[in-house]
Amino acid sequence: MQVGVRREQRAGERRVAATPETVRQLTGLGLSLMVESGAGDAAGFPDSEYQAAGAELAAELPPASVDVLLHVRPLPPDTAAALRPGTVTIGFASPASELPTVAALAAGGVTAFALELVPRISRAQSMDALSSQSLVAGYRAVLEAAVRYPRFFPLYMTAAGTIPPARVLVLGAGVAGLQAIGTAKRLGARVSANDIRAASADEVASMGGTFINLALDGPAEGAGGYARELGEDRAARQRALLAPHVAAADILITTASIPGRTAPLLVTADMVAGMRAGSVVVDLAAESGGNVEGVVAGRDVPVPVPGGTVTLVGLQDAPSAAASDASRLYAKNVANLLALMTLDGKVVPDFDDEIVAGACLTHDGAVRHPGTAATMEARN
Q1: What is the pLDDT of residue 3?
Q2: Could you list the active site residues?
Q3: Residue 118 · residue 349 · CB < 8 Å
Q4: Is the pLDDT of residue 221 over 60?
Q5: How far apart are CA 71 and CA 69, in angstroms?
Q6: Among 119, 96, 130, which residue's Cα sits nearest to residue 375?
Q7: Distance of alpha carbon 153 from alpha carbon 188, whole angstroms
Q8: What CA–CA distances, in Å, run from 359 to 8, 315, 327, 376?
Q9: Which long-range contacts (CB under 8 A, 24 or more apart) does 92-98 make?
Q10: How far, in Å, CA of 28 to CA of 24, rounded?
Q11: How far apart are alpha carbons 54 and 25 in whole angstroms?
Q12: d(CA 146, CA 109)
């Protein structure tokens, strides 16, 4: 079967859905790989390495020419509509926000697998692209903050005086948050963190951070270990309790998101106004609405405060900024999911397998994911 990898179509996206390493993995399973010329250039994987790994290069790869299409960003509706019936696609799909593409995939009889839907079970950890890319994003968030922060991160004791360490506050202690904590700690900052899941306290401590327990009542963990969205009363109480901690922070990094939903508002404009001049806020949830009021995805927004400004950073596509390692991890997630469905050189999804069934977005002319199907039905 012919597996294709095209250049990513979305502006600014530098990752690629296959690397020379995964080309070797997949050709070893009997699959044929065709890579569009230049697909890996921005991630540091030249055409020559793909050829050496066993892939065929194509100057241009029409969607209808492949049996399996691997991608990073959600496919545009016109690309989805150009696929042959029975084609298999694997990649991020953002089904909640890309309903026209979902409709085109279903109408075209495409079997689409969305990596956001991979079940959070131990057997699927090697296919969990949300986690692998969150790791990259958390690391990158700290570096972006450090570049913009006008002071040092670590403590320095010099003959000219003592420079105190930066105080970093991380909201959300999932994969991205924990990586942000560890990175900020390695840079010498004093790090604290909060997550509505009390069970995160031990994980925060293991990364060298201090956990802030707000003592919110009620269950806070949803399906798959993700945070549950709080009711408005509890959310307002959370913000009130967080306010003094936000005001005391030099660097604020927010990472809270709920798959398929608008990001929860954790920090209001009034809370930002209470921060010191020179402080930096990096919002990793900017693309899904943002955790911080006033944040704009892809932009730095200066907020006037006494003595200067606080910089709001709407970090957009953070993993793409570290495209090489992000692609290594992502491509391996994709290849592992494809390998699960490959038998004797053919891709044959077994829908009795909970990973395959859970990750399937569309198949045989229908939207298989219940939440997406319900959303589409409600809008029709």
Answers
A1: 98
A2: 120, 125, 128, 131, 226
A3: no
A4: no
A5: 7
A6: 96
A7: 6
A8: 21, 27, 20, 18
A9: 92/116, 92/129, 93/117, 93/361, 95/260, 95/361, 95/369, 95/371, 95/372, 96/260, 96/261, 96/371, 96/372, 96/375, 98/74
A10: 6
A11: 10
A12: 47
pTM of the model: 0.89
What single-letter amino acid sits at 77?
Answer: P
Model pLDDT, residue 375 = 87
- State the pLDDT at residue 323: 97
Q: Is the pLDDT of residue 315 over 70?
A: yes
C-alpha span between 268 and 289 (Å, rounded) = 13
Q: How many CB atoms lie within 10 A of CB 37?
A: 15
Quick one: tokens of 294? 């006033």
| Structure confidence at residue 379 (pLDDT) | 82
Residue range 347-376: average pLDDT?
A: 95
Backbone conformation region of residue 204, classed left if phi is above 0, alpha if psi is from -120 to 50, else beta: alpha
Give me 125's structure tokens: 């950890």
The alpha helices in the chain, defined as continuous H runs, are 20-27, 47-53, 77-82, 99-107, 129-148, 175-186, 200-206, 232-248, 269-273, 323-340, 354-359, 370-379
Tell me what pLDDT residue 282 has.
98
